[in-house]
Design goal:
6 helices, single chain, 4-stranded antiparallel β-sheet, two-stranded antiparallel sheet, 32% helix, alpha+beta, 233 residues, binds iron/sulfur cluster
Length: 233
Amino acid sequence: LTVTDESEALRVQDIEGFPTSPGMVFGALTEAHSSWVPKGPWRGAIVWGLPLPDDVVDELTTGPTPRYARAYEEWNYRLDVLACEAEGRLAAMGIQARAIAASRVVDEKRQRGEASHRHLAASLGMGWIGRHGLLVTLKWGPALRLVTVLVDRPIAPSPKLSFVGCGACWECVDACPVGALDPPISPETLTRCSKLLEKYRRNPDIGHLICGVCLKACRDAIRNQQNDDSGNL
Ligand code: SF4
Ligand code: SF4
C-alpha cells in the first residue's frame, strides 16, 4: 500500500502487517491537540497501549517493587521497538512519521516528554484522564504503558469509548500514601507526589520516577466496578 495523496485520510487498519497492541487508538489531530504534540507537520496520531502484567500490578500496595521497575523498563522498550517499526513502515509508504518514545523526558523541570501519550490516547477514545492524572481504560484501568507515532496526514479514526469518567469513585485519592491527590489539588499537594517519586528514583532497586499505588487502586476499582452492576463509578 502506498499513499501519495496527502488529502487522503490514512486507514491504519488497512496497512498489512502494521504493528498492533491490545489497546490501540488512532485518528486525526486538530488544533485542540497542539499542546500535547511537538511542533511539526503532524495531522494524525496512533497510540498503542500495552497492559502491564496483573501479578506485577498486584504487588503495588505500598509502593513500587523491583519487578514493577523492571516491567516498566521492558514495556517501554517493547513499545519503543513497536513504534519504530511502525515509523519505518509508514516511511516506506511515503508518509512522514515520528515515533515518540514511551518514556523519555525532554523537559526535566516539568517532567514532560515530547508528546503526552495519555492525553492523546484519551482524546482518541482509549479512555479518560482519571483523578490521578493517568489514562484510565475500562479494560485495564491505568495499568498499561503507552507509545505514540505522529504522522503528517489525517488518520481515519478508530472507534471511541463512550466517555465513562471517575464519577463517584475516589479510590486513588484515598490510596495515595502522601495525600497528593487530596482536593483541592495544588502545587503543594502535587509536590508531595514528586518528592516521593524522587525518593524511589534514588533507590537502586527502582531507579525510576514511579510509584504505582494509585495505579493499582484504580485498576482494582475499575475491576470491582465491572463485577458490580449496581452503581456508577
Ligand atoms: S481510582 Fe477511581 S477516581 Fe481514581 S482515577 Fe480511577 S476511576 Fe477515577
Ligand atoms: S504516584 Fe504515588 S505518590 Fe503520586 S499520587 Fe499516585 S499514589 Fe500518590
